[in-house]
Specification:
single chain; alpha/beta; TIM Barrel; Rossmann fold; Immunoglobulin-like; 6-stranded mixed beta sheet; 18% strand; binds beta-D-glucopyranose
């Protein structure tokens, strides 16, 4: 698919911007830097007429958008069109699985298509600017916003970030409209201490550069024209006043001089609460001087920038630079030429059958089979009885997930709907809610037990509702909320074979009960087609192929837990510390170090064998390419898709290196008995890291490499990177 680049602007656009800027008063310039939402802004129309607003966020009614646009274009002195920004995090009206789940597809091409569908619906309804992809790496499932990103790994995160930017910024959207993406939240927001939203972060500069920045760089390299400065502080300097990340890294090192930076919602005002500005005026000065071009809902710029310029504490050149970026983007999006939307368009585009079909395909591939003792796929006979139990079994809101405010429950297929659509006639399906998700004393354990007892199989749909993850939805416990575990225990007393379908916006701790159930399908918040995909998978109409984009801890106390950890000086298994006896290892005295399920993990109804590892390039020259291949065979009886993963370990570096790092992957389809030779290539440049002086280095030396089905299993070999 062809997509637009908004990072480097043409000379023609620069000339148009200069001509316009020359006509603008200081107040009109500052107006362009002001972004508001109508819900909290009185006199919006008057402000549009006087040029005090450059962008509106949070409006989705096309008629209203056209009305505001007409005022800006036809009734303000310079007729500068508005930029309409919205959060389109995992679909517009066609809601896809949450991004954490989408990443479990390990299918960037599919992700690109899904993002294009989101962009098509958003564009048809008048959005110009999508506040996504959310590319924050997160290794702490307490943080509710882990749902919005691609998980714990920078390599997978980069692949997904690129795919989403390409999809959002696709050419050929309805009504000839264009969309610009906004990778966010710049930067390190996902490192919130203790998983508490908005909390401080303090990654070292090396971790910032090795882990948190790369998905942003990937998204910008793909042409994303904007970014959003985050709420959090980074080692003492809030991201919204951070000239190191916003100027030195973004503009100077990476060269994105034209990139438009918008603050997060009220983030400039929050510099006061952070304690680095005495008042809103000082906050405005710090934000503009650090490189924030547009103020989202702090009213700091509109109230104080003009005075700051007149007093000489902010140079007008700083204002001009910001306004240039804003105007340039409006030109690049074509808004000066086509400011209005065709109000007939949404009806033709929204929830188009092709969009719904794609949502189903993404849902199928995003679900991860975590456990299966052979109960799945369910073998239903004409006389079978299925008990469908749990608060989420017929829930039409939870599958929409945390960031789908254009989504509607009536568009959603629940698991009950899915079973009704997929089950052959005659099969008895007994649905019992059992209990509430949480915070509600409703309970019908007796009915649940009776239904399970009378059934051949009990399917429990448990987990979190849509409001338990997302912004400001951190959790201190990661177990099944409310009375759900008690409900499960009650069903287990019947001895009826039991499948748990988990809907959640984050990894949960499954250890208290997982050994006692027969199968577990991690279904996440799977979007409008979630229930259909669950039913198809449980009934064997679809073979599950999702792989975890994030580690599942065994216990809350292991968090943060991630596969790409460092070895430490006293690794639990390993050499170098043999003079020390137990317990002087890096370990817990009361829990294993290992997770419940590792990154990259996911089962299938078939089995795959990996063999014949070949290191095609045992010596890789600097600037060259590592090539590794292996044979993957479908040793089962069902066709399936496998995500083949390549990991490396740099054995000795000038700084310590992770025990494993994902460096490649490929999704392959295999018929029963079929073998495929998979060859993965890694450019030597990808094998570097930020060294002692925080500069990127690729160091010669010995590496280990694995090709396998997840981050802990696989065929192991070695290669050397030679200077
Ligand atoms: C969120 C952003 C979002 C913005 C606008 C903020 O609260 O952190 O992710 O884009 O609101 O809705």
């Amino acid at each position: 698919m062809i997509h637009y680049q908004f990072t480097h602007l043409s000379e023609e656009i620069r000339a148009r911007v200069d001509a316009l800027l020359a006509q603008m008063t200081l107040e009109e310039k500052i107006g362009q830097m002001n972004q508001v939402t109508p819900h909290w802004t009185s006199d919006l129309e008057a402000q549009l007429r006087t040029g005090q607003i450059g962008s509106i966020l949070g409006i989705i009614d096309p008629t209203e958008i056209n009305r505001f646009q007409r005022i800006a274009v036809q009734e303000s002195r310079l007729g500068i069109p508005l930029l309409i920004g919205n959060d389109v995090i995992h679909g517009y009206r066609t809601v896809f699985p949450i991004p954490l789940a989408e990443a479990c597809t390990w299918d960037p091409a599919l992700q690109e298509q899904a993002s294009r569908v989101a962009a098509a619906e958003a564009a048809a309804c008048g959005t110009d600017w999508i506040f996504a992809p959310m590319v924050d790496i997160c290794r702490d499932p307490r943080w509710g916003r882990i749902a919005e990103g691609a998980g714990e790994d920078p390599f997978l995160g980069r692949a997904m970030a690129r795919a989403r930017v390409r999809g959002f910024q696709s050419a050929g959207l309805p009504g000839r409209r264009r969309i610009v993406a906004c990778p966010k939240h710049y930067v390190a927001y996902g490192a919130a201490e203790a998983g508490r939203d908005y909390n401080s972060t303090d990654p070292s500069e090396r971790t910032l550069r090795d882990v948190y920045l790369p998905p942003f760089k990937a998204a910008f390299d793909e042409g994303a024209g904007t970014t959003m400065s985050a709420f959090n502080e980074i080692g003492g300097i809030p991201a919204t006043a951070n000239s190191f990340t916003l100027k030195r890294v973004l503009r100077e090192e990476w060269g994105f001089a034209d990139m438009l930076v918008v603050s997060d919602y009220n983030a400039i005002a929050e510099l006061v609460a952070h304690g680095i500005a005495a008042d809103l005026k000082e906050a405005a000065r710090k934000a503009i001087m650090a490189g924030v071009d547009m103020d989202m809902m702090s009213f700091a710029y509109i109230r104080h920038l003009a005075d700051l310029v007149r007093e000489g504490s902010v140079p007008e050149a700083a204002i001009d630079a910001a306004v240039r970026r804003i105007l340039a983007l409006k030109f690049a999006l074509g808004l000066f030429d086509h400011p209005y939307i065709d109000e007939m368009l949404p009806a033709q585009v929204i929830l188009h059958p092709e969009h719904r079909a794609l949502a189903l395909e993404v849902a199928r591939r995003s679900m991860v089979l975590l456990k299966n003792d052979g109960l799945l796929p369910l073998r239903v006979a004409p006389t079978s009885k299925i008990a469908l139990i749990g608060p989420l079994a017929d829930d039409h809101a939870a599958p929409l997930g945390c960031w789908a405010w254009m989504g509607r429950p009536e568009d959603v297929e629940s698991v009950l709907d899915g079973f009704q659509a997929c089950l052959p006639a005659g099969i008895e399906l007994d649905h019992v809610r059992g209990c509430a998700v949480w915070r509600d004393p409703f309970e019908e354990f007796g009915r649940a037990e009776a239904a399970a007892r009378a059934a051949d199989v009990a399917v429990l749909v448990l987990g979190e509702d849509a409001h338990m993850s997302g912004e400001a939805r951190s959790r201190a416990y990661l177990d099944l909320p409310g009375r759900q575990q008690a409900l499960l225990e009650r069903v287990l007393t019947t001895g009826t074979p039991t499948v748990v379908v988990l809907m959640s916006g984050r990894p949960l701790v499954l250890t208290p009960w997982i050994d006692r159930v027969n199968a577990v399908l991690q279904a996440w918040h799977g979007g409008i087609r979630a229930g259909r995909a669950v039913a198809e998978i449980l009934l064997g109409q679809v073979n599950p192929s999702g792989k975890l984009s994030v580690t599942f801890p065994r216990a809350l106390g292991q968090v943060p837990i991630y596969y790409a950890h460092k070895n430490t000086g006293r690794p639990l298994q390993g050499t170098g510390t043999l003079q020390f006896a137990d317990p002087f290892w890096s370990r817990y005295i009361d829990e294993e170090n290992e997770p419940c399920f590792p990154f990259g993990y996911g089962l299938s109804y078939t089995t795959y064998r990996y063999d014949n590892l070949q290191i095609e390039t045992p010596v890789v020259e600097m600037g060259g390419t590592l090539r590794v291949s292996a044979t993957v065979t479908n040793t089962g009886t069902m066709a399936g898709e496998e995500v083949v993963q390549l990991y490396v370990r740099d054995l000795v570096g000038s700084v310590t290196r992770p025990v494993k790092e994902l460096k490649g992957f490929q999704r392959i389809a295999l018929a029963p008995g079929e073998s495929v030779r998979v060859s993965l290539a890694v450019p030597a440049d990808e094998l570097g890291f930020h060294g002692p002086d925080n500069r990127y280095v690729v160091e010669p030396g010995a590496f280990r490499v694995w090709i396998g089905p997840n981050s802990v299993e696989g065929l192991e070999g070695e290669f050397e990177l030679r200077a």
